[in-house]
Design a protein that fits this description.
Blueprint lengths: L2 E3 L18 H10 L5 H6 L3 E6 L2 E6 L2 E3 L2 E3 L3 E5 L5 E5 L8 H5 L2 E6 L4 E6 L17 E3 L6 H19 L4
Antiparallel strand pairs: 1-10, 2-3, 4-5, 6-7, 8-9
Length: 169
């Protein structure tokens, strides 16, 4: 699977009804960004909430809401002099959750079949990063990921495997 894409910093994939689930590495990075606050503080300061994914309770970003628009608490919008609105991630690049680094590349893991596949999810119907007229788009694929992201993917897979193997309550 590959798809051409180049992020244009529109911020659309950081808003709306997205559910950004976090793994243990993501939590450590987020805690580090917030001056080594505790995991409890991540919840009490309304950065995270609990949600269920695949039958397992997991932490996810708690999007904020303003005038009916939901958005990531780390999304910062900036209006450029030319009138362009940029959606900037305050966590980028060093503290950004893995799923956000990969977007719009997606991963599906099937532990029962011992398989893993990658796909492409259009971030937003009018995503400027998918515009065929944009010349500097890059091919998105697992093979083109940086080695540190591949290591994070491997750790995340083991984390999900432990959840999958855990006995039910």
């Amino acid at each position: 699977m590959s798809k051409l894409f180049k992020c244009r910093l529109c911020g659309e994939c950081c808003s709306g009804e997205m559910k950004v689930f976090l793994n243990p590495d993501d939590l450590l990075l987020l805690r580090s960004y917030l001056n080594n606050c505790s995991e409890e503080e991540l919840f009490s300061r309304n950065y995270l909430t609990w949600d269920e994914k695949s039958g397992v309770k997991q932490p996810r970003m708690k999007f904020r809401e303003f005038q009916g628009i939901k958005f990531c608490p780390f999304l910062e919008n900036r209006l450029e002099e030319d009138g362009t609105l940029l959606g900037l991630c305050r966590l980028h690049p060093d503290f950004k959750p893995l799923v956000c680094h990969l977007a719009p590349l997606t991963r599906t893991i099937d532990f029962a079949a011992d398989s893993e596949s990658y796909g492409f999810m259009l971030p937003h119907p009018a995503c400027p990063g998918c515009d065929p007229d944009v010349e500097d788009r890059e091919e998105l694929s697992y093979e083109n990921l940086a080695d540190d992201l591949k290591r994070r993917l491997a750790r995340e897979k083991e984390y999900f495997r432990s959840l999958w193997l855990a006995p039910g309550d």
